[in-house]
Design goal:
Layout lengths: L15 H14 L18 E5 L2 E10 L5 E2 L2 E2 H14 L4 E12 L4 H18 L2 E10 L7 E11 L14 E4 L5 H11 L15 H10 L2 E6 L4 H13 L2 E5 L7 H10 L12 E5 L4 H9 L8 E7 L6 E4 L5 E3 L13
Parallel strand pairs: 5-6, 10-13
Antiparallel strand pairs: 1-2, 2-7, 3-4, 5-7, 8-11, 8-12, 9-11, 10-12, 13-14
Length: 341
C-alpha cells in the first residue's frame, strides 16, 4: 500500500480487492480484536460475539447504500433490516434486536423517508426483532446521495457456533433458493430493461429457514450470498475451512428471467448479490432431511443440494459443467453491480 494509492469502488464491493484491503489495512492497525473469549475480528465472519455469563451474544453490522432506494420487491428500509437479520442468523443465532443509524441528504422528500422507515418497521415485525436504539443525521445538500442506513444486529446463540471455518470433507452443499435475484432485479431497474416476467429482488429475512435447517440436522457452516454472490460465499468457506467445494452446474437454481437478463448484461448469476438466500454446509447423512425441511419454509421452496466438500485442492471452489468438464469458480474481484446493497 503506497502513499499515493486511493480508495476505489472495488475496495468496498465485497470481493478479493476488499479482502486484500481488510488484511493489509484494518487487521494490521486494529490491535485488540477479541472481547470476552468471543468470535474475533480475525474470523472475518458475518459477525463477532461476546460471552455474557452463560450466554454468547452474536453481533453484526452493515452499511446499506443501495441505488435506487426503491426497487422491485423492496427498498432501502427492508434491505437494511433483512441484511442484518440474515448476517446474525447465519452464525447460528436467534436475532432479537436491531440498532440503526440513518443519514439523509438535506432536501430529501419527507414522504420517501416515511416510506422507508415504515418498511423498516414492517420488516422488523416479520423478522420478530425489536429496533432498540438509533441515530439520525442530515448532511448538507450535495454531500450525500439521498440516504444511507447502517444497522447493527444482536442475536443470542443457544447452540453451537456456525462459522465459515467448520466445513469438512464429505459434507453436502445446499443453496436455499435461486441465485442472482436481487442484483439482477436492481440492475434491470437501473438499465430500464423489461422482460415478460418481472424481475423481483429476493430481499427477505431468512432466520426461520435457517432455524428450521439447524433443528433438522447438523449445519456446520453458513453464509448469506450478499456481495459477490454465491461464488464469494463458497470461496470464503473453502479458504477458511481448508477444503475444496465441488458444485454441479446443472443443479444450481437460476430463474429463466434472471439468466436471460444476466446474459444480456454480461453477468454471472453466481457472482451476483442475493438478499434472501444462504449457502449451507451440512452433514451428508442429514442433508436430505435438512433439504426437505428448508423447502417447507416460506423462503426456502427452491432449495437444492448443489455439491459436496472434498479434501483435495483445498481452498478452491470447482464447478462441474454440463459438458463434463471442470472449471474453477474464482472469488470475484468485486461485486459486479455497484451500490447493490
Amino acid at each position: 500500500m503506497t502513499e499515493d494509492e486511493v480508495v476505489k469502488l472495488s475496495h468496498g464491493a465485497g470481493g478479493s480487492t476488499e479482502d486484500t484491503l481488510i488484511h493489509e489495512l484494518f487487521l494490521k492497525i486494529f490491535e485488540k480484536r477479541q472481547a470476552r473469549d468471543g468470535i474475533a475480528l480475525d474470523a472475518l465472519d458475518d459477525g463477532g460475539s461476546i460471552r455474557v455469563g452463560d450466554k454468547e451474544v452474536i453481533l453484526s453490522i452493515d452499511g446499506h447504500t443501495v441505488d435506487p432506494l426503491f426497487f422491485p420487491g423492496g427498498d432501502l428500509g427492508r434491505l437494511a433490516i433483512c441484511g442484518t437479520v440474515n448476517d446474525t442468523a447465519v452464525m447460528g443465532a436467534t436475532p432479537i434486536a436491531i440498532l440503526d443509524s440513518i443519514i439523509v441528504e438535506e432536501g430529501f422528500p419527507m414522504y420517501k423517508l416515511k416510506k422507508i422507515v415504515s418498511s423498516m418497521n414492517e420488516s422488523a415485525k416479520e423478522a420478530d426483532v425489536a429496533i432498540i436504539a438509533g441515530d439520525f443525521k442530515v448532511m448538507p445538500k450535495g454531500s450525500l446521495d439521498g440516504m444511507i442506513i447502517s444497522t447493527a444486529g444482536v442475536g443470542i446463540l443457544s447452540g453451537e457456533r456456525v462459522l465459515d471455518s467448520y466445513a469438512e470433507p464429505g459434507d453436502k452443499v445446499i443453496i436455499t433458493g435461486t441465485v442472482g435475484d436481487h442484483g439482477i432485479a436492481l440492475m434491470s431497474k437501473r438499465e430500464g430493461l423489461s422482460f415478460e416476467t418481472e424481475l423481483v429482488s429476493d430481499v427477505s429475512p431468512i432466520h426461520e429457514t435457517i432455524n428450521a435447517a439447524m433443528n433438522a440436522g447438523k449445519v456446520k457452516a453458513m453464509k448469506d450470498c450478499t456481495r459477490g454472490g454465491m461464488a464469494m460465499a463458497l470461496n470464503d468457506i473453502a479458504e477458511k475451512s481448508k477444503v475444496s467445494i465441488w458444485l454441479d452446474s446443472d443443479s444450481i437454481p437460476v430463474k429463466v428471467s434472471v439468466q436471460a437478463a444476466s446474459d444480456m448484461l454480461g453477468l454471472d448469476p453466481m457472482e451476483v448479490t442475493c438478499e434472501g438466500k444462504a449457502v449451507m454446509i451440512v452433514s451428508s447423512d442429514d442433508a436430505p432431511i435438512i433439504l426437505n425441511t428448508i423447502r417447507s419454509t416460506k423462503y426456502g421452496k427452491d432449495a437444492t443440494i448443489i455439491g459436496e466438500v472434498r479434501e483435495d485442492k483445498a481452498g478452491k471452489v470447482l464447478l462441474r459443467t454440463v459438458v463434463g468438464g471442470t472449471r474453477i469458480l474464482r472469488k470475484p474481484l468485486s461485486e459486479p453491480i455497484p451500490r447493490v446493497c
